[in-house]
Design goal:
By secondary structure, this protein is of the alpha+beta class. It has a 5-stranded antiparallel β-sheet. Strands 7-9-10-12-11 form a 5-stranded mixed β-sheet. Strand 1 and strand 2 form a beta hairpin. Helix 7 packs parallel to helix 13 and helix 8 packs across helix 10. The longest helix is centred in the first third of the chain and has 47 residues. It starts with a helix and ends in a 9-residue tail after the last strand. 21% of the residues are buried. The C terminus is likely disordered.
Length: 464
């Protein structure tokens, strides 16, 4: 295009030169006609030839100058195309000339430098914003007024998978009706919409916040409240279980007391029997209260252990000695398989509570096997302790939940035996506070084995 313009310009210049030559020739012939004589005719021919020679010299010079200008303008056009294609590093070669083209080239280079700097700053801010959005715990995405995905952060991409991509309709990636309803409200009514999504990801609950954008479209933030929902459900269940556990003995106590009060002169045997039931239920309530206080203590952020190096063998021996009276009265044999002399970091009082709860729990189900076996062994950097009974065992579907508060495999039998449903939950919290692990293994008809670990003391060494 530049060459065409300059070619036309060059043609116009040539035509002007020819026209000037013809005008000069006509003027000169008119002058000669008025003067007359042969000498002027000769002079006219010489002037004509001089003009033709000057024209022959001027045309190549004009062509050379035009080509130089065309080449410079072509470089400007190529430079503009490079900038338009996104190559902001392109620059025009500058010459030390004081002409309009040189000034234009310098101005274009300055413009390219400013564009490059602005684009680099914008890209830096975009990457910074993308990093901030990707580091958020919430899923965030934006859509256009037509419902197309504009962008999404890493959390949203993990939730929706590879289906969510820029430029793709959101309905092809997100099928949750609550999310789509909130988004439609933000796009159509231009107001902030809230909701709750339960089917966006399996087993997870999200709070939806959809807000319209000033330039069109909408921004959606999904806050994962699964943990909050689980905690709230656990709190409700905990309150319901505590209320139920307290209501049962309170109802029994109230009934027997009212019966005694209604009898003007109850028989001594009857009164003694009723008072025994009242005492039993009061003891059950007292034990439940103590377990609740113990659980609250170990779950408190202020719970601290007095850790000290202790030999695993001594720890096991002290535990057996502390529950000796209970075991003897139950008629169950308590066997020890021994323990290594390696030192572990433990709180003696807390570990006595752990062993006491585990052995007492095993006593309730060891009636068929009539024995309980305790022991410990060294495993890498830990000592693994175990408490095993040989009772009816626990089905596999219950093993993952028996350490939950108030969870019972056989509710009727547990209440008959006086259990509160908090013992194993307390044990789990104490073991975890020591930095250990706890789990249960069982087969129906073969009893249950509880295992927990304690880390070795840093400077521990086996005794000789």
């Amino acid at each position: 295009m530049t060459s065409k313009v300059l070619s036309r310009l060059f043609g116009i210049i040539v035509l002007l030169l020819v026209f000037q030559l013809l005008v000069m020739e006509l003027v000169f012939h008119g002058f000669i006609g008025r003067v007359g004589g042969a000498a002027p005719a000769v002079l006219g021919r010489e002037v004509l030839w001089s003009g033709l020679i000057a024209l022959a010299v001027a045309i190549p010079v004009a062509a050379w100058v035009a080509n130089r200008v065309i080449a410079r303008l072509r470089r400007v056009v190529d430079f503009a195309r490079s900038i338009a294609a996104g190559d902001l590093s392109a620059r025009l070669p500058l010459r030390e000339r004081d002409d309009d083209l040189s000034a234009m080239e310098a101005a274009l280079n300055q413009t390219a430098e400013r564009l490059d700097s602005s684009f680099a700053e914008s890209e830096s801010r975009r990457q910074e914003l993308a990093a901030i959005l990707d580091s958020m715990q919430e899923a965030v995405f934006a859509v256009t007024p037509e419902g197309l995905v504009r962008w999404s952060n890493a959390v949203m991409q993990r939730i929706a998978g590879t289906q969510i991509r820029s430029g793709r309709p959101l309905v092809h990636s997100v099928r949750d009706p609550e999310v789509l309803a909130c988004l439609r409200g933000a796009l159509d009514r231009h107001e902030v919409c809230f909701g709750r999504a339960n089917s966006l990801a399996p087993g997870r609950v999200f709070e939806i916040n959809a807000a319209p954008l000033t330039e069109g479209g909408a921004l959606v933030v999904l806050h994962d409240v699964t943990g909050i929902e689980a905690a709230e459900k656990s709190r409700r269940e905990f309150i319901a279980n505590v209320s139920h556990e307290l209501r049962t003995p309170l109802t029994s106590i109230q009934g027997y007391v009212e019966t005694l009060l209604d009898e003007p002169a109850p028989r001594p045997a009857t009164a003694r029997e009723f008072l025994g039931v009242i005492l039993k239920n009061a003891t059950r309530m007292n034990r439940l209260t103590e377990d609740l206080l113990a659980l609250a203590s170990v779950e408190s952020p202020d719970y601290r252990l007095s850790l000290q190096p202790m030999r695993a063998s001594s720890l096991l021996a002290d535990a057996i000695h502390s529950v000796g009276g209970i075991v003897v009265d139950s008629g169950v044999e308590l066997q020890s398989t021994g323990a290594p002399d390696n030192q572990v970091m433990a709180d003696p009082d807390a570990m006595m509570q752990v062993f006491g709860n585990l052995i007492e729990n095993s006593l309730k189900y060891a009636s068929s096997g009539k024995r309980i076996r305790v022991g410990a062994k060294l495993i890498s950097t830990e000592v693994e302790f175990s408490v095993c009974d040989f009772g009816p065992g626990i089905a596999s579907e219950h093993l993952e939940r028996i350490f939950e508060r108030f969870y019972r495999v056989d509710k009727a039998r547990s209440r008959e035996s006086g259990g509160t449903g908090l013992g194993l939950a307390i044990v789990k919290r104490i073991v975890q506070a020591h930095g250990g692990r706890i789990w249960a293994e069982s087969e129906l008809g073969s009893g249950v084995a509880f295992h927990f670990t304690l880390p070795l003391a840093e400077s521990a060494a086996p005794a000789p």
